[in-house]
Amino acid sequence: MKATIISIIGLFFTTLSFGQVNDSTDKVDDPIEYIKRESVGGKLDFALTLEKENKGFYLFDGIAYNKKDFAIFLWGQAVSRLGISTSKKASKLWTEMNGRELTGPEKKALTRGFDLETKK
Question: What is the H or E stretch that residue 78 is in?
Fold first, then answer.
């Protein structure tokens, strides 16, 4: 189980590392447009990545997530690294892109992913 989580997080960081970036700053030129473009069927669509896994739940930092919520957790981490300044703005962007409000568990997953401290 731990190996699966480490593999997914490794894939996540690899995806961000090799995404479309400006070589001089290692930042995406337009984070909002990049996020919108890559969140459905692209590099930030973690539901597609997790769909290939034969797991029902993912345990991270003592919290179990179903696939949908863990994909949102990973998306929250990704948009944080791409420069979205607050989890509230990330939630608003997610809602705008998906045409519906986040459920309580989804919002918690997004916020936890967004607030996760990692080496940038």
Answer: helix 67-81
- Domain extent, residue 65, equals 2-115
Domains in the chain, number: 1
Dihedral angle of Cα 119, 63, 70, 74, to the nearest 10 degrees: -10
Handedness of CA 64, 2, 69, 55 (dihedral sign): negative
* pTM to 2 decimal places: 0.77
- Please report whether residue 120 resides in a domain: no
The residues, any chain, with a CB within 8 Å of residue 87's CB and separated by 6 or more, are: 76, 80, 110, 111, 114, 115
pLDDT (tens digit, 9 = 90+) per residue, 73-98? 999 999 999 999 999 999 999 999 99
The residue written with tokens 């992913």 in the block is: 113
Residues 39 and 45: beta-carbon distance below 8 Å: yes
Q: Please list, in sequence order, all residues whose beta carbon lies within 8 angstroms of the beta carbon of residue 55, skipping any fewer than 6 positions away.
A: 1, 4, 67
